[in-house]
Amino acid sequence: MTTNSYxxxxxxxxxxxxxxxxxxxxxxxxxxxxxxxxxxxQAAAAHLKKEDLxxxxxxxxxxxxxxxxxEEQNIVSFGEGMTPIYTAPRSGAQAxxxxxxxxxxxxxxxGTFKARGAAVGVSKALEVGVKTxxxxxxxxxxxxxxxxxARAGIQSYIVMPENAPTITRNETAISGAxxxxxxxxxxxxxxxxGKAVAENxxxxxxxxxxxxxxxxxxxxxxxxxxxxxxxxxDVILYPxxxxxxxxxxxxxxxxxxxxxxxxxxxxxxxxxxxSGCAPIVKAWQEGKKESEFWPDSETIAFGVNVPKAxxxxxxxxxxxxxxxxxxxxxxxxxxxxxxxxxxxxxxFICPEGASLYAAVEQLKRQGWLKAEEKVLMLNTGAGLxxxxxxxxxxxxxxxxxxxxx
Amino acid sequence: MTTNSYxxxxxxxxxxxxxxxxxxxxxxxxxxxxxxxxxxxQAAAAHLKKEDLxxxxxxxxxxxxxxxxxEEQNIVSFGEGMTPIYTAPRSGAQAxxxxxxxxxxxxxxxGTFKARGAAVGVSKALEVGVKTxxxxxxxxxxxxxxxxxARAGIQSYIVMPENAPTITRNETAISGAxxxxxxxxxxxxxxxxGKAVAENxxxxxxxxxxxxxxxxxxxxxxxxxxxxxxxxxDVILYPxxxxxxxxxxxxxxxxxxxxxxxxxxxxxxxxxxxSGCAPIVKAWQEGKKESEFWPDSETIAFGVNVPKAxxxxxxxxxxxxxxxxxxxxxxxxxxxxxxxxxxxxxxFICPEGASLYAAVEQLKRQGWLKAEEKVLMLNTGAGLxxxxxxxxxxxxxxxxxxxxx
Lengths: 405, 405
Known about the structure:
The structure is a homodimer. By secondary structure, chain A is α/β, with parallel strands linked by helices. The first copy, chain A, has a domain at about 85-110 and about 210-390: Rossmann fold (3-Layer(aba) Sandwich), CATH 3.40.50. In chain A, about 35% of the residues lie in helices and about 15% in strands. The first copy, chain A, contains 13 helices and 14 strands. Chain A has helices spanning about 40-45, 50-55, 90-95, 115-125, 140-150, 165-175, 185-200, 215-225, 245-260, 280-285, 310-320, 330-345, 350-365; strands at about 5-10, 20, 35-40, 85, 100-105, 130-135, 155-160, 180, 205, 235-240, 270-275, 325-330, 375-380, 395. The first copy, chain A, has a 6-stranded mixed sheet with strand order 4-5-13-10-11-12, sandwiched between helices. In chain A, strands 8-7-6-9 form a 4-stranded parallel sheet, with helices on both faces. In chain A, strands 2-1-3 form a 3-stranded antiparallel sheet, with no helix packed on it. The mean pLDDT of chain A is about 95. At the A-B interface, helix 5, helix 6, strand 8, helix 7 and helix 12 of A face helix 5, helix 6, strand 8, helix 7 and helix 12 of B. Strand 14 (about 395) of chain A pairs parallel with strand 8 of chain B, so a sheet runs across the interface.
């Protein structure tokens, strides 16, 4: 059965060259930049109504007409998507931003937003006939892609830094993927994968080297608009490693504007990085359109340890176009923020997500955020995938002991 | 704003004594058995239509009229519920049960089904004025209750076995709860909590010692019916520790029958335990109505390491009444099942949930399950909370190495 996808073609994000959308594609064959999926949004808007969505299942596939998969039978899914948005009233009040919201991507299969990219990316890979894929990862994407690939019957080769969160090794390995560690950072993993992909003719599932992962992540933007009743918050903060999440939300909101489903208002998009790996922030501060490789990068927010993102120019474009900003957060502030959110509002989120709260505090102090604004933090994953960020030493009792001595 | 709850009273599960539903209650004051929440289901069915649910948010609060919280403002929520049901086609085919489904409770805040009980339990605790609660736990319930309690502004004292999954310590501690470990099993933790609760006048949030946790878990049953389009599968398997999940699903289905929302067909309910802690299975094999304390219990499926459940008689009643059964699974079979589900269908679920697949294999071999039956496995949590169940040793590369030598 058809999904009624309105996808028309792929378009190079740099040179605009058009590519076929239903055959295996990687980067632009002209200029090696990422390809973006384009749709006939006028036709989509003419046939699909917002109200049609109301009775659909609460997964990202509710937007199937605006996704690249053509046939329902190729959808590889665990029912992912429509993650909740909840308030953080006490943390918000403490930071002086009472209308503070968290969209919680920890509540997804594999516990991070990476499930979205994997769901759509693997589904389309299956549709165009991929049998084997390779990818470098900081852990979470690898776990997600490996499990979705297993469900699709696609073999995967995953390379991650040795000090990526160990739980992500489990997810990857138990799927039957071939897992390798590298004594280095994600760019080292990327080089190893690049070579293997070229030599073996595999599909390269690296960030933005295939065009469909971003389409999965785009659904975060659709959901935000739908969950805010086809309005948008004033500000959206996003932790930025490879940057696809932020690029994708921006793409989604532009698409919804073109469809007339939301108005002209665009949230200011904030790219949050770690002080130990902040190439986008540095480029933004210098008013540049691209970032430079960040040497010796290091942070406990491991997902954002990306020294040079292929899509850096798209992240910066989204930030500049929306009058957003970019800000770097020290690991100590991130850990404190993680504790504050759990203590005050019961939200145990990952360090990448928690860094956003430290950014909210700083941007409010600087006057960049106003007290009355609606501010949405996009938490990318569950706190429980990062056991090492919580240091505790609870008392040990013996059977029959009293609780309070 | 009112929730329009149709709750009328609490009823003792053993002696039938009626208790007030809007004041702080623990066990039956007559016979110390668990209390069950009762509703005016005729009135609910007269005013609420199945179709009303279609456009409600995808959380367990969509069933608010059938839950015990009276006022919307007391709802303590992270948007939990409406977890996906997906198929496990390859694992199902391999076991000879092609219509095999997983309802995945890993896709909830805190990564397990315990979030449901905590959401409704903490909300109602807030509504009846609780300031401090105490509870023993095998880990996951403690993490969930601690975080929901933090969100509600309720102080909590949590006691868990020293060898409970370490990630659950993080969740509990980061919430600001007072966490204690005990060199023993959950019944040892329960004795310590019982004493502290009595001495300090705290709310006892132990399994079935407060009446509302079961109401949260009941929503699994409502969701199953709604997701199967107001039909039910032929068989539901549930990993059984304290047993509340299974009791609650049975309660939900009986309520839906009384409302006329589902027909007479009741799924056969299967209680799955670990061979190292199988008191319910032993009682069922002996045709008894209650279980005996299981000494020296031990299993890697830590959540079901409950030597004697307070609600054992209710679990057994649900199994007997539905022509279900009870079965114990060896840890080795559970680990193999966990691997199979991830390998064949990409589902990385917790050992408690994985044990259900080993049960499906055995029950099919015994002829108890038929090939054409719709079989639902209720996975209680995410695999990633149990890093120790996956043993791997991936190769370590150096930057510049070749992937395949």
